[in-house]
TrEMBL record:
The lineage of its organism: Bacteria, Pseudomonadati, Pseudomonadota, Betaproteobacteria, Burkholderiales. It comes from the Bacteria. It holds the Pfam family adh_short. NCBIfam families: PHB_DH, PRK12429.1. SUPFAM superfamilies: NAD(P)-binding Rossmann-fold domains (SSF51735). PROSITE patterns: ADH_SHORT (PS00061). Coiled coil: none annotated. The gene is bdhA. This is 3-hydroxybutyrate dehydrogenase. Belongs to the short-chain dehydrogenases/reductases (SDR) family.
Amino acid sequence: MLKGKTAIVTGSTSGIGLGIAKALAAQGANILLNGFGEYESAKAEVAALGVKVAYHGADMSKPDEIAAMVQACEAELGPVDILVNNAGIQFVAPVEDFPVERWDAIIAINLSATFHGTRLVLPGMRHRNWGRILNVASTHGLVASAQKSAYVAAKHGVVGFTKAAALETATTGVTVNAICPGWVLTPLVQKQVEDRAKAQGVSVEEAKKTLLAEKQPSLQFTTPEELGALAVFLCSPAADNMRGTAINMDGGWLAQ
């Protein structure tokens, strides 16, 4: 379905980003990976699906490096048809104790990078009258949790930005939508689980169970593969008129 298309997926050396990259590649899209993780194995996994794969190590907190990533993608793989803004970081602390540098980094990577990537690829998408911009937000883009003020603020911002960009492209062949996962067992969440286990003096498995029980009624983690399938749907002709949505895949979190 996506043969001949080119996709940038940020934060895609593992977790949700890699799951989405593999799902798009399985539909024929060439992929530019990005992230600070070990990328050779990620490249191999995507290349095994029979598409062209490139990697760029742009720091998503730096606009100049985001621009360099887009330019590198265009030079190596062709014009950007699909942009998945997925890169994200997390830090947990009460507002009064939240380190200023951590706040700034979370806003830069989780929110501002979404703007910078979008503004850079949008002119080409408009010119070709086709494009898909998928912003990976979170259930925390729709509801809050304590001690996650920066992350919640950034993800709410991503959802708002998604709506605004979708309105600006509403009469074009470019769509902009947000995906809002609940708990996914990514390296980011794994660290939270391990911190919880240590703080509560329980096993990692027990910490996983209590984490899910607090928020996610299904008591199951959403998987990167499930989110990848949703991304593929949003890139399909069936989603041509889905614009500015924030789709939660969260095991019932927001149904409560």
